[in-house]
């Protein structure tokens, strides 16, 4: 027994550390580390089966069996995971040559209620593809039957399709479009996904192999998901989906089990027709369609990011999306059981079964969260072991899992963040999985909102309260443990210690889950791309172009930087912006701000025709600008919590001054009611102290109140009265000083 307690863990930990540090020298050590991980976890499960099941009562035994069953499922999933990352399938690119047959392509953009400005970018991206224009047809498939979307299609010269009913939701929409198109290849694009110019060039070549039914590329995102955004960690952690979309899909490619994920995918039409089109009867048609195709054909995964889109922008929307995926995958498993589906290989069956089993992670995580709480609060035992035995068998298993995951993930994901992700979603996804699996309750398909802009912080208490309850139970269990330790002589510190450690580990995940539920304001509905390249602008009344640096750009505006000079009036008169490959873009100056020796200027685009807009999207969405970092850095729990509390603004200043104020002593007139009123109010004289593009500061004898709407004219500056809002007031004797914010979008001279 002494050998078990000291010899086994010491030897195993030594081998694990040797393998881990050897990974830097040779990739062979990585495989040795994986073997050590599976061995240590296998030994742990054998020990759990043989020596730790409690028998002190039926409730203890039941909890012990539930926990052990959960750990056995975890070992099965661990084996599958390391099978996928054991070796990637490295595919050589298959480019199209001039002598090759270039097939015709139909691009189907399925939409229901997505905003026009979101669809506009997707359509423009499809029109920018580096592929013969005469071979590509873009179809805007609108299940919302909206007039403005039909006009959008007409404006950009793409096909508009709709239907009388929404039967079978997205799958029905795509099948309807299939019947009304005839391209040899079919591309499915989500309404928010923008393909990069090389998308078809780097995917179509694989169809020279007649056995290939579809080519899947990763879903990547150009905005921050709620974990990145709400925790101020956009530059510290990758998108939560990146690890699956890139690393695990590459592993599935070895076994012809690539998952169709609903977008960024190219299909052979004849293959789709052979299985009857896109699968219907489930709310996630993508997983079922890919699996059915792989019973007859082959799939290809291209690991390069060739299209980018919008991740859910609020915590509630992310949970809605995962609820739909969870229910849809379980529905697929019921309708097309991968373990019995004809045509799948044994490995395909295992991988698709594992993909469905994954969506019960909420149930498994709830078992791990509740087990130590039930022991410390209610005395319910889940395992019968002392702290030394658990340390001897659990520590090598945990350490090997942690280090091997670190070695194979290449900083794309860590166990700590996996713990946070699973913990935050566990209560909701556990309910989704159990209700779909047991009660067979049918839920309507719901589209995840995209392109949302908000101007206030909001705590999503309706989605956070399950984690809040679990956190409350954890704190209660800590209090009871402290009380028992201080006042009960029968307190067993040996048994309580590992449950206490376990519960504190879970507590960290629950605490981060609460922080994620604080949705930060999103002031922009259109994401900005960092550029930092040379550009130029033109100003009314001046000759030639003025060089500047393009700091960032979106489809609605840009930020430029240039040295600040005394001739500042030229900045206010900018009316065109010149970008390489795009040309002259009409602009309006919105704000200016001093930054050291430079001046930064905010420009708003206006009057862009469809051709100019398509060129702008082509400039933004390319391999250089559209991708975000996909590695973790400074992403530990402590630094994340510190970033949250240090960067959170309790009440953002809505009227924060970004505009350079011009000192101006002049006269003007103020009117307290709009000219549309039946009786126009009198004009009152004012003295103007300064003015900018956003507003002005005035002095007057007229009593004013915050929030009052006024009209203001300034001699020599504003000859036409402009609407403004009173933002602040100071009174000295009978004289009022007030700050006005202009409400229209005109730029002053």
Automatic annotation (TrEMBL):
GO CC aspect terms: plasma membrane
Gene Ontology MF terms: cellulose synthase (UDP-forming) activity; cyclic-di-GMP binding
S-adenosyl-L-methionine as UniProt keyword: no
Domain Glycosyltransferase 2-like: 107-276
Subcellular location: Cell inner membrane
EC top class, as a word: transferase
UniProt-listed GO biological process terms: cellulose biosynthetic process; UDP-alpha-D-glucose metabolic process
Key words of the record: Cell inner membrane, Cell membrane, Cellulose biosynthesis, Glycosyltransferase, Membrane, Transferase, Transmembrane, Transmembrane helix
One Pfam family per UniProt: PilZ
Domain of life: Bacteria
Domain PilZ: 524-621, 657-745
Catalytic activity: [(1->4)-beta-D-glucosyl](n) + UDP-alpha-D-glucose = [(1->4)-beta-D-glucosyl](n+1) + UDP + H(+)
Transmembrane feature ranges: 6-25, 32-50, 62-85, 351-375, 387-405, 463-483, 495-518
Membrane topology: Multi-pass membrane protein
Predominant cellular place of this UniProt entry's protein: membrane
Assigned EC number: 2.4.1.12
Transmembrane in keyword set: yes
InterPro entries (alphabetical): Cell_synth_A, Glyco_trans_2-like, Glycosyltr_2/OpgH_subfam, Nucleotide-diphossugar_trans, PilZ_domain
Annotated PANTHER family: CELLULOSE SYNTHASE CATALYTIC SUBUNIT A [UDP-FORMING] (PTHR43867)
Protein name, as recorded: cellulose synthase (UDP-forming)
Organism field: Bacillus glycinifermentans
């Amino acid at each position: 027994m002494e050998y078990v307690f000291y010899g086994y863990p010491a030897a195993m930990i030594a081998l694990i550390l040797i393998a881990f540090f050897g990974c830097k020298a040779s990739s062979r050590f990585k495989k040795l580390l994986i073997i050590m991980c599976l061995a240590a976890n296998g030994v742990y499960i054998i020990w759990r089966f043989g020596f730790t099941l409690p028998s002190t009562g039926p409730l203890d035994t039941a909890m012990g069996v539930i926990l052990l069953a959960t750990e056995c499922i975890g070992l099965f999933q661990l084996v599958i995971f390391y099978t996928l990352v054991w070796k990637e399938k490295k595919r050589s690119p298959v480019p199209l040559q001039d002598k090759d047959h270039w097939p015709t392509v139909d691009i189907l953009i399925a939409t229901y209620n997505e905003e026009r400005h979101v669809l506009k970018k997707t359509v423009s991206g499809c029109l920018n593809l580096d592929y013969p224009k005469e071979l590509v047809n873009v179809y805007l498939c609108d299940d919302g039957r909206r007039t403005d979307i039909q006009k959008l299609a007409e404006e950009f010269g793409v096909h508009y399709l709709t239907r009388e009913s929404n039967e079978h939701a997205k799958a029905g929409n795509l099948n309807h479009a299939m019947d009304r198109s005839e391209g040899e290849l079919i591309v499915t694009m989500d309404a928010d996904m923008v393909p990069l110019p090389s998308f078809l060039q780097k995917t179509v070549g694989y169809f020279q192999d007649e056995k290939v039914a579809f080519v899947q590329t990763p879903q990547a995102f150009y905005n921050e998901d709620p974990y990145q955004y709400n925790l101020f960690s956009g530059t510290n952690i990758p998108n939560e989906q990146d690890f699956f979309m890139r690393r695990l899909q590459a592993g599935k490619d070895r076994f012809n089990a690539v998952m169709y994920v609903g977008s960024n995918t190219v299909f052979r039409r004849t293959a789709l027709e052979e299985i009857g089109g896109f699968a219907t009867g489930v709310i996630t048609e993508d997983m079922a369609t890919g699996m059915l195709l792989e019973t007859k054909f082959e799939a290809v995964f291209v690991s390069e990011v060739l299209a980018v889109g919008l991740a859910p922008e609020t915590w509630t929307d992310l949970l809605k999306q995962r609820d739909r995926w969870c229910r849809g995958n379980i529905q697929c498993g019921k309708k097309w059981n991968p373990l019995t589906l004809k045509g799948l290989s044994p490995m395909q069956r295992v991988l698709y079964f594992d993909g469905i089993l994954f969506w019960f992670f909420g149930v498994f995580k709830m078992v791990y969260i509740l087990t130590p709480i039930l022991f410390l609060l209610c005395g319910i035992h889940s395992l019968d072991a002392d702290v030394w035995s658990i340390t001897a068998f659990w520590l090598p298993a945990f350490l090997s899992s942690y280090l091997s995951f670190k070695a194979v993930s290449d900083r794309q994901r860590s166990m700590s963040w996996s713990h946070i992700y699973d913990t935050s979603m566990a209560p909701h996804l556990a309910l989704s999985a159990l209700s779909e699996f047991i009660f067979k309750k049918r839920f309507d398909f719901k589209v995840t909102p995209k392109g949302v802009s908000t101007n206030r912080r909001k705590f999503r208490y309706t989605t956070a309260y399950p984690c809040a309850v679990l956190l409350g139970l954890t704190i209660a269990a800590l209090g009871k443990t402290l009380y028992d330790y201080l006042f009960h002589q029968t307190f067993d510190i040996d048994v309580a210690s590992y449950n206490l450690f376990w519960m504190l580990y879970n507590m960290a995940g629950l605490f981060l889950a609460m922080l994620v539920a604080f949705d930060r304001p999103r002031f922009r509905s259109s994401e900005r791309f960092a550029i930092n390249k040379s550009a130029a602008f033109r100003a009314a009344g001046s000759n030639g172009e003025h060089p500047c640096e393009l700091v960032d750009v979106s489809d609605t505006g840009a930020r430029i930087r240039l040295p600040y000079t005394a001739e500042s009036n030229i900045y206010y008169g900018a009316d065109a912006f010149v970008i390489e490959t795009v040309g002259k873009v009409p602009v309006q100056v919105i704000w200016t701000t001093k930054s050291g020796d430079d001046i930064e200027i905010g420009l708003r685009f206006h009057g862009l025709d469809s051709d100019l807009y398509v060129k702008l999207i082509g400039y933004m969405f390319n391999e250089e600008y559209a991708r975000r970092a996909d590695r973790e850095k400074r992403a530990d729990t402590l630094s994340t919590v510190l970033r949250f509390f240090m960067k959170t603004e309790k009440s953002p200043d809505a009227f924060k001054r970004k505009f350079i104020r011009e000192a101006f002593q002049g006269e003007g007139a103020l009117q307290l009611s709009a000219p549309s009123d039946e009786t126009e109010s009198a004009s009152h004289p004012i003295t103007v102290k300064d003015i900018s593009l956003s507003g002005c500061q005035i002095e007057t004898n007229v009593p004013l109140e915050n929030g009052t709407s006024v009209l203001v004219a300034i001699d020599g500056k504003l000859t036409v009265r402009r609407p403004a809002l009173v933002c602040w007031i100071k009174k000295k004797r009978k004289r009022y000083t007030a700050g006005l914010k202009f409400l229209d979008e005109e730029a002053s001279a």
